[in-house]
Write a sequence for this structure.
């Protein structure tokens, strides 16, 4: 896999049903690598686990990510949030500021391997992160406060 650039990341994000926001609302205080560490740390416990052996598990991941993100006020009133996707060079890129469209397919398109979603989202004010990772026992959705960083 080639190293991610901002241009290739933008294409991937658009294919996942995200609309880029050219100017971020705020300057994030937590770098993507720190957010990834919060949701992938060995001591991390999932907020919930989606069974990846069921037929529509990727749709369920999208629905549950949206529910958990809204419950934790990660998504702003205007629908915007920050996102980091997995891949070579992803930690070298700044957060992408995006807004979801009705064609949202995060779990289907933001993958490390087919059927294995991997991405981290953060609120515009940097107070909370929500990551989706593929683990041995299913797809984890993890919410963490950036105060833990």
């Amino acid at each position: 896999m080639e190293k991610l650039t901002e241009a290739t990341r933008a294409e991937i994000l658009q294919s996942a049903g995200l609309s880029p926001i050219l100017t971020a609302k705020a300057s994030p205080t937590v770098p993507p690598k720190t957010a990834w560490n919060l949701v992938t740390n060995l001591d991390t416990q999932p907020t919930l686990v989606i069974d990846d052996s069921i037929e529509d598990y990727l749709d369920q991941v999208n629905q549950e990510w949206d529910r958990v993100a809204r419950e934790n006020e990660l998504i702003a009133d205007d629908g915007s949030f920050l996102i980091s996707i997995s891949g070579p060079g992803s930690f070298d890129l700044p957060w992408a500021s995006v807004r979801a469209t009705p064609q949202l397919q995060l779990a289907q398109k933001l993958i490390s391997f087919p059927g294995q979603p991997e991405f981290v989202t953060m609120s515009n004010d940097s107070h909370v992160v929500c990551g989706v990772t593929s683990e041995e026992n299913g797809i984890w959705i993890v919410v963490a406060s950036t105060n833990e960083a």
The first helix runs from residue 6 to 15. The chain has a mean pLDDT of 93.
